[in-house]
Amino acid sequence: MSRFRVPASESRNLSSQSIDRRSALRCGLALGALGTGASIAVGGQLTGKIRKSLKYSMIGERIPLLQQFKMLRRSGFDGVEISLRDGLVPKDVLAAVEATEIQVHGVINGANDDCSGSIELCQQVGGNTVLIIAREIKTLRYDDNFARALDVVRKAIPLAEKHDVRLLVENVRASFLKTAEEMARFIDELKSPVVGAYFDTGNTITWTKQSAEHWAHVLGPRTVKLDIKDRGHAVFGDPKLKSQMAVGTDGGEVHWQNVRKELAAVSFCGWASAEVKGGDEQRLTGIADWMDQVLHL
Q1: CATH code where residue 181 lies
Q2: Which of 76, 104, 151, 289 could pair covalently with 125 via S-S, beta carbons 3.0-4.6 A apart?
């Protein structure tokens, strides 16, 4: 399985030349994984540039791992993200990947300050990113939280570099980074090509009070992967958390046309993972179809 390594010496400056180079590399990674025989259909701005994934915890059927991966393929997914909490054995994961071509492209570390175990697992299963959170310590001031979280990520960079794994910061409730501008500054402060953004379309609205397209615009080429959710959607959302202010499409919160426009503007290519209520094969198929619709795939 081919892997992509970001040179440790690469600059984080966001000149147009640097943006174009990183976008091309990211697209090469995403599309190269489709195989040389794959055909790219003519469709929306993101058609042929995004591979669909979901979180392993969304699989509602308790069947053997290989059968779960086969179900993901039938449901329309290309990959899955796992975590240490899932308790999966790397050799079993690799066997399922080999048999189904469902890629385990990343590992979710979450708010754990020590992400070494997640980095090691990611390397073992052939993934390329670990999702991390700049978590908030309520007893600390903002500046102290910022400095502490920077130190946590800096300590993880050498191991991530060793294993060709990128560290992607996500916007969540447990983080002190409540605006897109703060997230961008946090990533840029680290001055490392290993660190990027995991952009969650729903968390931007629920926990930060900014629009999803605003986050997409500000994060720009820092965005490496996407979490797809819309808590305002009647079928795949969460009515209890629906914003009364955000106006999206299909009665939801996310204005998908605007999000697609911002992602296309920076030539986004890569993985998009559903993070909604999962279930059986029928439910997962519906989620994959919904992703096709909102992302115009």
Answers
A1: 3.20.20.150
A2: 104
